[in-house]
Amino acid sequence: MSKIALNLVAIFVFLMTLSTLLGSMFNLSPTLPALATFTILGIATFDSFGLQGKGGTIFLDWIAGFSPKHRERIIHHEAGHFLVAYLLGIPVIGYTLSAWEAWKQKQPGQGGVSFDDAELASQLEQGTLSAQMLDRYCTVWMAGITAETLVYENAEGGADDKSKLAGVLRSLGFSVSACEQKQRFCVLQAKTLLQENWSAYQALVDAMRQKATVAECLKIIDEKL
User: Fold this and answer.
1) Span between the terminal Cα atoms of the chain, in Å
2) Which spans are transmembrane here (predicted)?
3) Cβ atoms of 55 and 47 closer than 8 Å
4) Burial, 59: exposed, middle or buried (Cβ in 10 Å; 0-12, 13-18, 19+)?
5) Is the distance from CB of 191 to CB of 146 less than 8 angstroms?
C-alpha cells in the first residue's frame, strides 16, 4: 500500500503543478489549485485525527483493489496465515480481504486473518510465554509473507506481520540479531508446512477467492489433508 500512496501523492502534486503552469493558457482561476489543495489537506487532516487514518487506508485499498494481481496477492497472503494457523492448532475466527471489510468488522488496519490469541495474551501478561507458543505464533505471522513469496517469488505485503513479530520479541528481551534469526527460522518453518500441504493451500485459496466462511474453509482443508 505504501507504493500506491506515494504514487497517488505524486500524481496529485503533478496535477496541481500542471494546472498552475497552464492555468493562464486555459483561463483557469489561480484559486482553483489552491482550493483543491486546501480541500485535500483538510480531508487528510480529518482522516488522520478523526478516523485515525482509516479513511485513507480504505481509499487506497479500494484503488488497489482494481488490480486483479493485487487482489490475488492478498488472497494468497492471507491463505498462508490461515492454513499455517490451522496446522499449528491456533483457532481461526475470521478473515477479511480488504480494508473496507476490516472496517465493517471493526478490525484494525487492512484486516487479514483473525486468531483466537487469548492464550498468547495471557502468557505475555504473566511473563510465562513458552518457547513452543512463541514459535507457533511467530510462524503464523511469517506465513503470509512466505506464501506470497512461494507463489510470486517476492512479497509486497507483510510489513505489519514483521512489526508484530518484532514487537513481541523485543518485549521478551530479544536483541535485533536474535529477532532476525527468529524471523528466518519461522519463515523456514512456514515454508515447510505450506509445501507439505500445498494441495490444501491451493484449495483454501480457491475457497477464500469465493469468500467462503471460516467453517467452509476449515472443511475444505480437512478434506485435502
Assistant:
1) 34
2) 7-26, 32-51, 79-100
3) yes
4) middle
5) yes
CA pair distance 33, 15, nearest whole angstrom: 9
CA distances from 145 to 138, 149, 161, 193, 195 (A): 12, 6, 8, 13, 14
Residues 208 and 98 in one domain: yes
Q: Nearest Cα to 119, choosing from 137, 101, 138?
A: 137
**Residue 201 contacts residue 144 (beta carbons within 8 Å):** no
Domain residue limits at 181: 68-223
DSSP 8-state symbol, 115: E
Q: What is the pLDDT of residue 126?
A: 81
Considering the domain architecture, whether residues 73 and 109 belong to the same structural domain is answered as yes
User: Count of CB atoms within 10 A of residue 156's CB?
Assistant: 17
Looking up cell 498552475 gives 20
Task: Give residue for cell 510462524.
Answer: 139
Last residue of a domain, one of 51, 66, 81: 66
- Nearest-angstrom CA–CA distance, 205 and 72: 9
Q: Across the 225 residues of the chain, what is the mean pLDDT of every consecutive 10-residue run?
A: 50 59 58 55 46 46 58 92 96 80 56 81 81 92 96 88 90 91 95 97 96 95 93
Round to whole Å and give the CA distance between 211 and 109.
19
Q: Are 100 and 138 in contact (CB under 8 A)?
A: no
Q: Which of 95, 88, 133, 98 is nearest to 114 (CA)?
A: 95
